[in-house]
Design brief:
This protein is mainly β. It has a single domain, classed as 7 Propeller (Methylamine Dehydrogenase, Chain H). It is built from no helices and 13 strands. Strand 5 and strand 6 form a beta hairpin. It is globular and about 40 Å long. The protein starts with a strand and ends in a 6-residue tail after the last strand. This is Putative WD-repeat protein.
């Protein structure tokens, strides 16, 4: 169950049942959230219209981490796949290196994307090398 809560007013704006455990959430835009689920699905939550819609389900591998990036999201999966998705569901690139070890966290700053993987390595990718 996903609950959309207005923290300041302490009110629940909406609740959405997804049928799988929620493993990660991020705001892709100020009003659009992306939820990563244990069955490999990604769901968009529109905070203005209070509706959900599917983003992608191209793998059954659980989504461990979701991070906003260039108008879409970077997704790290338990099978080691680290992939970018536009909010329309299309995917334009994958980050390599984990060799099937789970991606536990993706973070970014102004210049770099960092991934944390079960193999103990932190991988660093330059944002300027990525064209979306």
């Amino acid at each position: 169950m996903v609950h959309l809560v207005a923290v300041e007013s302490r009110t629940v704006l909406g609740s959405f049942t997804q049928g799988a455990s929620v493993l990660s959430v991020c705001w892709a835009t100020p009003t659009v959230g992306v939820v990563g689920l244990s069955d490999g699905r990604m769901v968009i939550v529109d905070a203005e219209a209070l509706v959900t819609r599917p983003l992608s389900h191209d793998s059954a591998s659980p989504i461990e981490t979701v991070t906003a990036f260039k108008g879409g999201v970077l997704v790290g999966r338990r099978d080691g796949l680290c992939q970018f998705y536009n909010l329309n569901g299309s995917s334009s690139f994958q980050l390599t290196g984990s060799d099937c070890d789970p991606i536990y966290k993706i973070v970014r700053d102004t210049n770099y994307i960092y991934t944390a993987c079960r193999d103990g390595l932190i991988r660093k990718y330059r944002c300027s090398d990525i064209n979306v």
